[in-house]
Amino acid sequence: MITAAATSASLPDTVRTLDLPDEAATLRLGEILAAKAMRRDVIALQGPLGAGKTAFARGFIAALARRHGVNPPSEVPSPTFTLVQTYALGPVAVWHFDLYRISDADDAIELGLDEALAEGICLIEWPDRLGQHLPKDRLDLALAYGATDGARVAILTGHGAWAERIADVA
């Protein structure tokens, strides 16, 4: 179960803070956001190693596959070593980037970033590595360790079209 945490009155309406008590809640957040995702969307995944970025991606990709009547992939590994994994999910592909090991933002272009932004849905771990290539219209999802073992805190910041789409996420 995902519970909405209190947010500061000074934060804009496009910011949602959620307590995720366990990995199942992180997977569920992926499912919720997959239901709102569309072609050309970008979800920028931030957080330290082990914070749940890949768990979120697993839930997101599995839910999007089911939404399009496709069997979910049996595995959704972290693309730390391959840098990008692509999942053809019916009419749309999900490109899951892990930019931890790139040092120059232009290296992401060589990974197919332009194609992914034009044709698919992008999940981008370590999005700060993109610099000016990071689209302004996106959802930022920051994951942090929660108060108990396995718990996480998610901070969603909607930019552009995502601002309205996350208004009801609780």
CATH topology, which one?
Rossmann fold
Assigned CATH architecture: 3-Layer(aba) Sandwich
Shape: globular
Annotated CATH homologous superfamily: P-loop containing nucleotide triphosphate hydrolases
Name of the level-1 CATH class: Alpha Beta
- Cα(first) to Cα(last) distance is 10 Å
How many domains in all?
Answer: 1
Major sheet? 8 strands, mixed
Task: Write up this protein.
The protein is built from five helices and eight strands; from the N terminus they run ββαβαββααβββα. The chain is α/β, with parallel strands linked by helices and 170 residues long. The chain has a single domain (24-165), classed as P-loop containing nucleotide triphosphate hydrolases (Rossmann fold), CATH 3.40.50. Strands 1-2-8-7-3-6-5-4 form an eight-stranded mixed sheet, with helices on both faces. α1 packs across α2. The longest helix is centred in the middle third of the chain and has 15 residues, at 53-67. It starts with a strand and ends in a 5-residue tail after the last helix. Mean pLDDT is 88; it is low at 1-13.
List the helices and strands and how they pair.
Layout: E1 3-4, E2 15-20, H1 23-34, E3 42-46, H2 53-67, E4 84-89, E5 92-98, H3 106-110, H4 113-119, E6 121-125, E7 139-145, E8 152-158, H5 162-165
Helix pairs in contact: 1-2
